[in-house]
Amino acid sequence: QVQLVESGGDLVQPGGSLRLSCAASGFPFDAYAIKWFRQVPGKEHEGVSCISGGGHIFYSEPVKRRFSISRDTTKNTVYLQMNNLRPDDTAVYHCATDQRRSCLDWSTTQWQFWGQGTQVTVSS
């Protein structure tokens, strides 16, 4: 079955960096889009970055030029490199995938498969 496992979240000071990982299994890795979302308590999931099956990359405005998404098809893993972190980046970060979705479906949070999430806290 489809499984997504995130890791890499931590407590980091403002201006610091983290790299999140999303290990995927149970589906054709380079055929589905994989998207990173984040969520803070009391708010809806916010789209952060997405990589399509064909390798096209998308970012939300708040993270553009600070975050970088990539994937390793030999490890079935998607990475989110986060630089120059700010306190408002604090959230639980999830990766998600869905055979029916593309990265162009930016506004919807209705993706079928989600990981359990990893906490990122940016604080001094």
Quick take:
With 124 residues, the chain is mostly beta strands. The chain has strands at residues 3-7, 11-12, 18-25, 34-39, 46-51, 57-59, 67-72, 77-82, 91-97, 113-114, 118-122. The mean pLDDT is 96.
Task: Characterize the structure shown.
With 124 residues, the protein is an all-beta fold. The chain has strands spanning 3-7, 11-12, 18-25, 34-39, 46-51, 57-59, 67-72, 77-82, 91-97, 113-114, 118-122. Strand 4 and strand 5 (46-51) form a beta hairpin. The protein is globular, with a radius of gyration of 13 Å.
Rough outline: globular
The number of helical segments is 0
Helix and strand succession? EEEEEEEEEEE
Mean pLDDT: 96
* Distance separating the two termini: 40 Å
Number of strands: 11
Radius of gyration: 13 Å
Sheet with the most strands, sense and barrel status:
7 strands, mixed
Instruction: Bin the helical content.
Output: under 10%
Helices and strands in order, then pairings?
Blueprint: E1 3-7, E2 11-12, E3 18-25, E4 34-39, E5 46-51, E6 57-59, E7 67-72, E8 77-82, E9 91-97, E10 113-114, E11 118-122
Parallel strand pairs: 2-11
Antiparallel strand pairs: 1-3, 3-8, 4-5, 4-9, 5-6, 7-8, 9-10, 9-11
Attribute tags:
124 residues; mainly beta; globular
